[in-house]
């Protein structure tokens, strides 16, 4: 069977410098078995995924060893696998991160403990995994989860996932409430440029919205109720009357000048189209519109 060693990008390469040989083995075996590769095909394919120190160890194997995928992994595990104590130290130092999620944390915890104890059938596995899991949960959940310590592993993880999701929802609601309160406080301090009152923007001004014609900023006197004095109102009325009388006077003067004889003559003698304008400058010109039709 011809095999393309890079077909499908089965998994990342294994170097042996801090890489976990067990994780690499699980990924490689699961991917190749899913593609229905037999052990001989796997033995041929694995050469393309070993680099650095792992490649050097592989090159030192005999051809018979290279042809057996199980022997290849045994040699890699003997060379690069961590000791039980090292895996146990990683297990003890593992911390829960809310961003990673409860499920991701539980899988990492199981994987490290499985490597340290060489399997999940160990009697200490359930006890150690549950105690470590509950210990790393938020303090508000520890007492609740401790009440279910006698339940199986999946049930405890499921309860923790549900509780964390509810906590995240409550936190989001609290944050949204705080944002709304800050926004309302800010709006109450805003001064409208249209009416001078606080609590709304100019675009939302009720005086402007209820008006059918353009509305400019209110006069200075109307911004302060104390300025509504009879003398101020009288002065404003006098100013308005003066402007109106001045406008009428200018309008009447213009109409009288327009109706005078001088204006009439100047208007009548002014050419009103291109033909009259040309005829006024050329005495031999005849308006083409007045020519007889032949």
Structure in words:
- With 294 residues, the protein is mostly helical.
- Among the domains are: 21-80, no CATH class; 84-184.
- 62% of the residues lie in helices and 0% in strands.
- The protein has 15 helices and no strands.
- It has helices spanning 21-34, 39-45, 52-59, 63-66, 69-80, 84-93, 102-117, 123-136, 139-146, 153-188, 206-209, 220-223, 230-259, 261-268, 274-281.
- Helix 6 runs antiparallel to helix 7 and helix 7 (102-117) runs antiparallel to helix 8 (123-136).
- The longest helix has 36 residues, at 153-188.
- It is elongated.
- 11% of the residues are buried.
- Residues 1-8 and 172-176 have low confidence and may be disordered.
